[in-house]
Fold:
Amino acid sequence: MKRARLAVLVSGRGRNLRALQAACAVGHIAADPVLVVSNDATAPALEFARQCGIPALALEHTAYASRPAFDAALATALRAVQPDIVALAGFMRVLGAAFVTEFEGRLLNIHPSLLPKYPGLHTHRRALTAGDHEHGATVHFVTAELDGGPRILQGVVAVKPDDDEDRLAARVLEDVELKIYPQVVAWMARGELRCLAGQAMFRGAPLAAPLGLDALEETFR
Structure:
């Protein structure tokens, strides 16, 4: 089977990038990382990518006069490597409609909330402030609507009485994010997951609701 070409967009430490790279390296994801891009030249994820032999590129968004100019530079960089999958992994920039339209169907994002709850920032704080008993993360296809694209896979954790933002964020990352993102990318690399006309299609059938942790293959549990 042909291996997919994977590009990853990052802004920080790259914990999800590390999980994706590790799964690719051992064959759990039938993909090869071909580019890592960050909007922050100091992001530790870039150095990690270079240490793994993955081409890494810093595109400082502050160097561009407008959001469309940054998006255009990012699109040019991605076109050069012809990715089959573009995974946003802690990428802290909102992408414009023209960019999303060009890469739609190939763009994935992981968001630290149980979408449609809490799109945008400060999701853990918002969940705690609301008194939620459950929290989690969602992998979804990217559309022009912020964190509003078709949902694919979600994982839930219980909110504990002594949780603060940091404790809750760490548990969501370890117990959910680092499992569900490699799983979704693996499905997509195999051709089992697609986005058609704004609808997530899994193994030939539309997803009426996001899958849960019980859908994880043993490899990703």
Residues 4-220 form a domain with the Rossmann fold fold (CATH 3.40.50.170).
